[in-house]
Amino acid sequence: MKSATTFLMFQGQANEAIHQYQQWFPDLEIKSLSYMENSQQVAMAILDLKNLKIMVNDSVIQHNFTFTPSISIFLECESVEEINHLVAQMLEDGKALMPLDNYGFSKQFAWIEDRFGVSWQLTYN
């Protein structure tokens, strides 16, 4: 096996999602980004978030499925301020699957589905 990578397939919102994630995560690095011909739809993008490689694209085929909360990106925050800030941003047009709280296994934990349907688990201990 050469590598393993998280892959997020959107249906027309990939470019918007990439720009949103850049605002949320100043450390997010776009390694590559190409668009479909005569379009703002993403043919393929490679992102790096704290050494997590994420591939992103817009599917040219319409599917009857989207993201599921069963798969999520897990983020360990460095401070209470950081987790509060990220949760507040993600909740704008998103929804809390588990609101920010102390659940025993974490001093502060939240499970958020962003406005694109991508699930994020955030923790601070």
TrEMBL record:
Residues 4-123 form the PhnB-like domain. InterPro entries: 3_dmu_93_MTrfase, Glyas_Bleomycin-R_OHBP_Dase, PhnB-like. Transmembrane segments: none annotated. Pfam families: 3-dmu-9_3-mt (PF06983). Coiled coil: none annotated. Gene3D superfamilies: 3.30.720.100, 3.30.720.110. This is VOC family protein. It comes from Lysinibacillus pakistanensis.
